[in-house]
Amino acid sequence: MHYTFLARTDPGRARDNNEDAVLVDETAQLGVLADGMGGYNAGEVASALAVDMVVRELRGWLDLAVDRASVRDVRRAMEICVDLANRQIFEAANTHAAYSGMGTTLVMAVLHGDILIAGHVGDSRLYRWRGGVLQQITRDHSLLQEQLDIGLITPEEAEHSGNRNLVTRALGVEDTVLLDVREVPVLPGDLFLLCSDGLNDMLTDEDIAATLASGLSLSVLAVRLVEEANERGGRDNVTVALIRSKETPKKSGVMAKLLGK
Q1: What is the pTM of this model?
Q2: Which one, of 144, 198, 169, lies nearest residue 22 by Cα?
């Protein structure tokens, strides 16, 4: 399987600073997105620390181990890298007054053959678009999701709730954090979307699906998604990362015969 990646971030219409951070690495086949929170500039610090640490450490490990690593190995490496990032943010928040109370959500995807290994903390999301159907892969760690799960509110009421941005799990808040990890089989043509809540707070799943259904290039899709969120109000920073899969072309002709393919 072959994968292409693209990411885009925007401060939105209501904020001057951008507390989101995102990095994609096509060589290492991974993407990481974080949405920071905290006092003045602290959210930016937390999200940048999380993304930089996770990508750097995981990229280094994958470079050494990818040829012999199992899915289980990759899952464990993801958990270790997120734990390192969490400890770094927690220590910074507790040793620098300006960073007190900072934290960040995180969503990440690592491609391993025809498996996507997803990890997340908080309410940044991962979606899959396949065959005309949009599916949310992650489940928000939020007060709103907990209220939905136990039936305190309906999905319709949730759309207008004042608790939309209250997360129940984040990096840097405590000295340990639990990364939810799951494995997702990938088919050629699948399109994955990682996003901060600045996107899905402004756009419904139906809105997102309509844009992804256009079949446009990743660069155009990313711009469209951000623009649509801003047109609906852009009340928060908006960040997206897109991953598209396609089958690796088979070798043909003289070289294939020489190689016995």
Answers
A1: 0.91
A2: 198
